[in-house]
Structures are given as C-alpha cells and as structure tokens.
Amino acid sequence: MNHHLKVTYFDMAGRAETTRLALTIAGVPFEDERVSRGQWQALKASFPLRQLPVLTVDDQVLCQSHAIARYVGCLTGLYPTENRLLACRVDEITDYVEDIMHKVYPTVHESDPGRTKAMRMKLATVTFPEMFGLLEARLTSSGAAGPWFLSGITLADLDVYNLVRMMKSGVLDHIPVNICSDYPKMMTIFNAVASHPAVATWNKAHTKVA
C-alpha cells in the first residue's frame, strides 16, 4: 500500500535531514513542507508535541525525529529490521550523534557573544576531540569492508554525514571547519553519502544547513 508522506520542518537540514535523505536515496516520493519561523508560531499549537519535525503518513501525524527516521528507515531498507543486534548498533551511532549535538545547542541559544565564543572554543579543543574519537572508534569497530558503518548504507551513515556536514559548513563560529578531518572513518562515510547521486542532486536544490 502506498502512503502519502509529508515531512514538515524548517527551511534547513537540521533534525529532518536524515529522514529526507533516506526517502530521497530510496526514491520514495514525499512532500517536503518547509515553514518559516513566523509560520511556525501560528501553527505550533496545532501540532501534537508542539515540535518539529513531524511526518504525516496519510492522516496520521508522527513526532520525534529519531522515531520518524526509524520508521522511514524501515520503509526504505536503511534500518536493519531483520537483525535486532545490527539495529541496536545503528541506534547506538544515531543516539551518540544526538549526544554530540546536545553539546552544541547551549551555544546556539547563548545570547552573550563572549560566552558563546568561550563555549565553542571548549567544544573545539576538549569536548569534540574526545567525543569524535569515541565515535570514530565505534564506527570502525564494525569491521565493514566498504565505506559504510555496516555492510550497506543505514541511518547511522546519514546521521554521521549530517554531523560532519554541519561542522564543515562554517555555521558554528569558532569551530574549525576541518575539525573532522582527523577521523578517517567519519570522513569516508561523509564522502560516500555526499557522492551518492541522489544526495548530490538533493543538495544542489537544498543548500541551507542551519
């Protein structure tokens, strides 16, 4: 049965991009609804958890970015539904990428430029080197021969790609754009996703990272 899928989020990559890319890579049609901050304030009260992104499947609205991504991963074959151990390994990577992102969010909401700079410099010199090193070790621990975390592309690879892409984009002042360069598996995954024909086409039309 074919469902009508609609991804609703802001006009940037952010928390919706893993879902968008999974659908794009698999060639699954979906409506890409992007709302402005002003529109969101008017719409917010009508959404179940007052948060974005949401995925509308026919007339059902699904919430929470990781839950949405896993659902789409199951639809597209980018989540290992037949092997719970491999599914857990994918979840481990996606959850740890989220842990890394949670270190970034306070610096985005900090209003004092001096404090923002100090917080970002600590991320660049202390927090990220430690966390990226741990992530790199887990990515290589699978022993996969190809460019992916496992034997084929999964949601884990898309989350790593989105993390590296954000770091390389320069949207985070005081974070060196080459901060991921010392982590070869992260960069291999990033380059493999970026060079995927469907992703390359998507990125030409959607350039805003954050």
From TrEMBL:
Lineage top rank: taxon: Eukaryota
GO function term, MF aspect, one: glutathione transferase activity
Database matches in Gene3D superfamilies: 1.20.1050.10, Glutaredoxin
Occurrences of domain GST C-terminal (ranges): 83-210
InterPro entries for the chain: Glutathione-S-Trfase_C-like, Glutathione-S-Trfase_C_sf, Glutathione_S-Trfase, Glutathione_S-Trfase_N, GST_C, GST_superfamily, Thioredoxin-like_sf
Any one biological process term the GO annotation gives: glutathione metabolic process
CDD domains documented for this protein: GST_C_Sigma_like, GST_N_Sigma_like
Domain GST N-terminal: 3-80
Record-given protein name: Glutathione S-transferase
